[in-house]
Amino acid sequence: MFPRKGATVINNFAVAGGFVKNSFNKRLFKLAFALILSGCASDPATDYSAFPETINNPQATAPIRPITPPPRPIQPYNSYQSKALSNTYDSYNHSYSDSYGTSGNYANSYPVKNFIRHMVETHGFSESYLQGLFAQANRLDSVIRLESPAPSSGPSKPRLGSWTRYRNKFLTDAHINNGVGFWNNNADAIRKASITYSVDPEYIVAIIGVETYFGKNIGKTCVFDALTTLSFDTYRRSKYFMSELEHFLLMARDEGYNPREPVGSWAGAMGLGQFMPSSFRRLGVDFDNNGRCDLWHPEDAIGSVANYFSRSGWQYRGPVAQQASNSYDASVIELSTYEGNEYWRVHHNFKVIKRYNNSNKYAMAVHQLAQAIKQRYQLSQVGTERTLQ
Fold first, then answer.
1. I want to staple 343 with a disulfide (CB 3.0 to 4.6 A). Which of 213, 223, 280, 324 is the partner?
2. At 349, which CATH number?
3. Are 203 and 370 in contact (CB under 8 A)?
4. Which tens digit of pLDDT belongs to each residue from 100-132?
5. What is the pLDDT of residue 7?
6. Is 334 a catalytic residue?
7. Above 80 in pLDDT, residue 236?
């Protein structure tokens, strides 16, 4: 094929402007032609970093699926259906107060994912079930405040009258009368627990009185929310509370509870005796033999408190505490009143009460309330017998 008029040919290629007749010009044109080609190849690559990810990744052409809320957790199968808990609520439609804070987004938390993996691998839980459950958990701001007190400015000094103030919370006519009423209403269960576990009945009653005012103040906090918050949003005792959360989920599965149903204290204590989940699993008893340990029910709570004392080494009809004249003896404790210090010689059973709550004031309040209730209960029984006669 021949070049058209006015064209120049280089190495049999046609270019405008005539024919190149010598080798120098041929080499010159070759060099120019190469420079033109190299200039095109050196254009900078397009910077995709300033564009959205969908442009930066041309293969991402699939439509974006709408975000859907996680499914509600399905309660694992349990063949036993027992009476409903007292003070329960609709676990998904319950209207929380301001103290409950907001959703903690726990399902997307790496520590929670690790915890779920542990529960799946160690205890055989369903991963999707736990993911759905933690997606419902609420971060409780009030619990965080209670678990994270203001830093101390130094060692605290005993405050004058601290025992008097503490004692006056529990040693009241209302507490004593309600204790007598609780004993009357549950006399058979208390007698049975005392005989079964060799624990003096008045101390079973007094523990429940100090802990929950005989079941009138069991707490209103969702235990699952409380333990989740304490495990993943606090630091001081997070490992302890994570262990209790593990026990709580096992307890709920064993007893057939929806984990969002039980209510209790801000720290996760439950029932009339305020058992933590580990104590619930280790020491809680189905005292009414209905197939479920329900510590929100008086009979199971009474049996479980008695079992707690028994397993801690309670000595039936053994001494608890006696007033002393001074604190020189190692077995004597000192309690501050407005009138001066009281001195009490404490015995083995006093230390057993402290296994429940490691406080001298707590154990003394239980002891004195037990004695006051016992005295008034016995008087009421004498009055009843005289009336019957």
1. 324
2. 1.10.530.10
3. yes
4. 445 667 988 999 999 999 999 999 999 999 999
5. 43
6. no
7. yes
Asked if residue 346 and residue 203 are part of one domain, the reply reads yes
Closest CA to 309 of 175, 207, 179: 207
Same structural domain, 348 and 214 = yes
Q: What is the mean pLDDT of the chain?
A: 80
pLDDT by residue (tens digit) across 81-96? 333 343 332 332 233 3
> In total, how many domains does the chain have?
2
Q: What is the 3-state secondary structure (H, E, C) of 276-308?
A: CHHHHHHHCCCCCCCCCCCCCCHHHHHHHHHHH
How far is 250 from 246, CA to CA, in rounded Å?
Answer: 6
Q: How many CB atoms lie within 10 A of CB 263?
A: 22
**Among residues 211, 244, 255, 261, which one is catalytic?**
211
The reply to whether 10 falls in a domain is: yes
Tell me the whole-structure pTM to 2 decimals. 0.73
Closest CA to 73 of 12, 8, 127, 7: 127
The answer as to whether 154 is a domain residue is: no
Angle at Cα 332 formed by Cα 329 and Cα 336, nearest 5°?
130
The model's confidence at residue 385, banded by pLDDT at 50, 70 and 90, is low
Distance, CA of 56 to CA of 60 (rounded, Å):
9
Count of H-run helices and E-run strands, the chain: 15, 9
Residues 208 and 347 in one domain: yes
The residue range of the domain holding 17 is 1-34
Q: Is 227 domain-assigned?
A: no
pLDDT of the residue at 157: 64
Quick one: which H or E segment has residue 14?
strand 13-16
CA distance 211 to 204: 11
Classify residue 160 as left (phi > 0), alpha (psi -120 to 50) or beta.
Answer: beta
